[in-house]
Amino acid sequence: MSLQQVEKDQIGLDIAKELFQTQYACSSLSLLSGGSANFLFRGILAQPLQDGRKTVIIKHFKEFISANRNFHLDISRCLFEEAMLKALDTFPSTTIDNLCLRTPHLYLFDGKINTQVLEDLSGTIDMTKVLKSPTALSVLPQSISTTIGRVLGTWLRSFHSWASEPAQADLQRVMVDNKPMRQIRYAVSYGAFTEIVRKFPEVWERNKTALEEVRDMATVEYAKTTEENAGEDWGIIHGDFWSGNVMIPNTPSLEKQQSKEINIFIIDWELAQFGRREYDLGQMIGDLYERKHFMEIESSLWLIQGFVVGYGALSDEMAFRIAIHAGVHLICWYIRRDPTAPFTEPPKQIQDAIRIGTNFIVKGWERDRTWFEGSDLACLFNRKC
To answer: Could you give the 3-state DSSP secondary structure of residue 275?
Structure first.
């Protein structure tokens, strides 16, 4: 059950009152749509900032998700996101062919009201909305899709390496404690996928042994302590790395703007946690493949290709784990949709998604490199998507 409008308005009034004595005092706040976990407002500042900015984004956290007050979500997530955003201010941006990727600036965190004041990324749109739009191919043709993929992959590799450096030891000690979000990430992925596949007996019966082994492996993995999971493929990860958390310019043609710098942003760091780096890679690939499967958007495959090339060298072990995670993510589309809404996709298309996701998992578990080299995920092994 969501909050009534009068309750949302009161949240805005309380925030405005709390910010009144700060440089982020706002003359007005507008509730923004999008995002089901937190309450987002755009604030018009009473006085511009020193750099001339006249607006900010205000992100307010509750102990439940904004879309459903009965869905509990640990309030500590705002503290972990604050820690990440502060640290990331020292992390350099990544630029390829005039596409510059970075994270938004955190101006202020008010712990009394669990509220952040953030840089306003005005003029941007999340990449998922673009991929779902009728104009996806014109906004994201092959050249720009491949470049966006490359900059995403290059940035992610740099982030994973930076977050594991001794200089980030304090951040590492903080982020290993984000256990509530780690539990949620498990619950909506490895804790759920086998029950989804069971709904498709033809797929389940042929593959249940391998699927159960993967589930059990991940269950043990998520339960281990940081020390037990120490290894080169482990470290701080974004934890929710998908196209909906990639903000790109809201324009009919990115190619026409590429002669000047184009800013791309990675947002929503509250699920950042200690985990396998393959989780970030597999989630993005699984998400993009979901767009390809259900909407037949070629841009998705171009993005995947650039993403893998940008991330760089992968061991076979990493590649197989990425494929497994991508498969789990694709299958869990089934529970990410609105559970109260009827399916609009044809039954065969739904079953094919479960079958493809299962193939990614099983073939990854069996380490069947030959199979993958003839699949849409060939780029994980031979860079030829």
So the answer is: strand
Give the separation between CA 265 and CA 209, rounded to whole angstroms: 41
Q: What are the tokens at 51?
A: 């750099």
Q: Look-up: residue for tokens 């989804």?
A: 196
The neighbouring-strand residues paired with 124 are: 249
pLDDT at site 374: 95
* Contact assessment for residue 115 and residue 150, using Cβ atoms and an 8 Å cutoff: no
Q: Quick count: other Cβ atoms within 10 Å of Cβ 385?
A: 20
Strands (E), 151-298: 234-237, 246-249, 262-266, 273-276
Phi-psi region of 123 (alpha: psi -120 to 50; beta: other; left: phi over 0): left
CA distance 205 to 146: 38
Mean pLDDT of the chain: 93
- Extract the tokens encoding 124: 């941007």
Q: What is the pLDDT of residue 258?
A: 74
pTM: 0.95
Check residue 230 and give its pLDDT: 65
Radius of gyration of the chain (CA): 21
According to DSSP H, which parts of 266-341 are helical? 277-295, 298-311, 316-331, 333-336
Contacts of 245 (CB under 8 A, 6+ apart): 126, 238, 266, 267, 268
**Residue among 52, 71, 73, 53 at smallest CA distance from 63:** 73
pLDDT in tens, 349-368: 999 999 999 999 999 999 99
